[in-house]
Amino acid sequence: MFRIAANNSVVVADFWGRQEGGGGGWEVHFRRPFQDWELEEVSRFLGYISTVKVQEGEDFLVWKIERKGTFKVKSYYRSLKEDNSPLRTRFFAWEAVWGSKVELKADGQFTLEDPLGQFIWQAQSGAHGVAYAAMLESGNSVLASEDSSYVWESFKSPADTILPTQVLEIGGMLSSRQAEGNYSKGRFQIRLVPDGNLVLNTFNLETNTEYDAYY
């Protein structure tokens, strides 16, 4: 919906229309009609914002699960432990699976293993010069050298998810999953190609071939 919004850089006050009698209502505009598969999401969105009323004042961001309203990675981790938490969706670009282990090994390899100790994933860092790993407040996971320069960043290695403040660089790509619980590369890709265009294309998993962009 963000992509098809008539204006992607407005503030809340721009979407809230004042009405006679001191009330108001949401005035959200889109730059094209909706496709059939978008209607359910649009309906949920409009239903949600219809329950939210605006009070006069300056716009600001609030992290609702922190008393002071400030985002903290620690509170995000804590929320993941709650079974019905809306935040329990994606972490490290995978769905959170408690019991799995992320480890920085003695040889500098940064790996993810399932609860049974089976290998799932490894950062493509080369391992050379890695001194420590860290999770930044932004959600970016980094491997750093002795001088604290980054050897590898999760923000520069997107999988099927892109997080707030993360940038998809030229040549970057997001891939769909094969299935809801299968995080292997799927048959749909979104790529930022060298000429600056953001394109969608399908991918042949058997031949490892990218098809021409269809959007």
TrEMBL record:
InterPro entries: Bulb-type_lectin_dom, Bulb-type_lectin_dom_sf, G-type_lectin_kinases/EP1-like. It comes from the Eukaryota. Keywords: Disulfide bond, Glycoprotein, Signal. One of its GO terms (molecular function) is protein kinase activity. It comes from Vitis vinifera. Residues 101-169 form the Bulb-type lectin domain. This is Bulb-type lectin domain-containing protein. It holds the Pfam family B_lectin.
